[in-house]
Amino acid sequence: MSLPISTGRIQSTLRRFLDSEASGGLVLMAAAAMALAVANSSLAEAYFDALHFYIGPLSLQHWINDALMAVFFLLVGLEIKREMLDGQLSTWSRRILPGAAAAGGMLAPALIYLAFNAGTPASIRGWAIPTATDIAFALGVLSLFGSRVPASMKIFLAALAIIDDLGAVIVIALFYTSGLNLSALAGAAAVLALLFLINRAGVKTLTLYLAVGVALWVLMFISGIHATLAGVLLALTIPIKLSPGAPEASDAESPLHRLEHLLHRPVAFVIVPVFGFANAGVSLLGTSISSLADPHTLGVAAGLFAGKLLGVLSVVGLLVKLGFAQLPAMANWTQMTGVALLCGIGFTMSLFIGLLAFDDPAVQDKVKIGILLGSAISGVAGSAVLMASRRKTSRP
Question: Residues 204-232: pLDDT tens digits?
């Protein structure tokens, strides 16, 4: 079954989402390149010292990764809730193709990473690193092809990445949480219950939700569960006005839409690029071809490039062959292959999971090199395939 396209909705939130994510992806590319350049220049010492400078109880890097990224996860949660309840993922027929492709695109990279690191128990903890797709980066590359790629493929990629983000959130909650403070966790549960009660009471004042959300973040931080997940939980409590079969509700009617629109640009153009700049910087001095053969680096790079391609494309091919789904409208298999390759761009969420998986800075650097390598190869290969598709379809 092809992915449906609702004209009214494409002109509203989803269109703005695609545009801002694509443009933000280009800014993120620039931020990542700048971080690499600075980390390998005479400014490297100042760069790393600044990241480890303490502001109150946390270093600058921790404020970015724990506090700023909570806002990123808030937006992720809002997007997941909107799409599941009132968007392109609101019915099972719409969810089956991107949902199954996302599942395949998480399983295959994890298996490939484990194959490279099976002999080292301590390294297995990084299995989830190559399972993520960076929606901003991938859509940023796809946007370079403009109308030469069908809108349905952009929607498919966005839907797949949103479901992928949901999977990443679940993985972080289940596998990267330790040393729980039960008192703080109980407090967080009470605050979350309060937020749901406020929602049930029909309150639509965003400032109240956000103020209580700050308390939720603090308690989550103390509890041992990664504080950024407070953003996702807060998003689940924000009221949304459903408008099935019609253009999406206006910002005045739907607090969720209003908050989503307020956050899109700051997250896409400030928060994610700042995170990328703070975490993509890795010194390449002393890096050799032999050092690239480290299991962490190879497992992540191969997981992103080969794993995403195999996982996404094989699942889509199986569903289409069995008649459970059709390719997105106006798309062909070459374009699907190109998009499957772009799914291997796992920058933001992969970096985030990598920092949770390993505490050793040396291992973190190996993981970062794998992420950068796998993402770069996936982006270049995906672009080449899409270019070939354009030439093929343009022939008379």
Answer: 999 999 999 999 999 999 998 888 889 99
**What is the rounded average pLDDT of the residues 284-290?**
71
Q: Which residue has the higher pLDDT, 101 or 10?
A: 101
CB atoms within 10 A of CB 163: 24
11 pLDDT more than 50: no
Strands 54-55 and 58-59: antiparallel
**The pair of three-digit structure tokens given for residue 263, joined into one six-digit string:** 């956050």
Cα 354-358-362 angle, rounded to 5 deg:
95
Under DSSP, is residue 56 helix (H, G, I), strand (E, B) or coil? coil
CA distance 194 to 212: 9
Distance, C-alpha 292 to centroid of its chain: 25
Res. 141: pLDDT tops 90: no
Q: Please, which residues have CB within 8 angstroms of residue 317's CB and are 6 or more apart in sequence? A: none
Q: How many CB atoms lie under 10 A from the CB of residue 323?
A: 8
Query: For residues 150 and 330, is the Cβ–Cβ distance under 8 A?
Result: yes
Locate 144 and state its tokens.
């370079």
Tell me the one-letter amino acid at 381.
Answer: A
Contacts of 10 (CB under 8 A, 6+ apart): 151, 155
Q: Are 72 and 272 in contact (CB under 8 A)?
A: yes
The encoded tokens of residue 261 equal: 């629109």
**Residue with the larger pLDDT of the pair 179 and 234:** 234
DSSP letter for 149, please: S
- How far is the C-alpha of 190 from the C-alpha of 186, rounded, in Å? 6
Cβ-based neighbour number of residue 284 at 10 Å: 13
Neighbours of 336 (CB within 10 A): 22
- Which tokens is 59 given? 């270093």
Answer yes or no: are the C-beta atoms of 187 and 155 closer than 8 Å.
no
- Determine contact, residues 99/311, Cβ cutoff 8 Å: no
Asked if 342 and 142 touch (Cβ cutoff 8 Å), the reply is yes
- Give the Å distances, CA to CA, from 299 to 105, 109, 269, 315, 388: 15, 8, 30, 21, 28
Instruction: Supply the mean pLDDT for the chain.
Output: 87
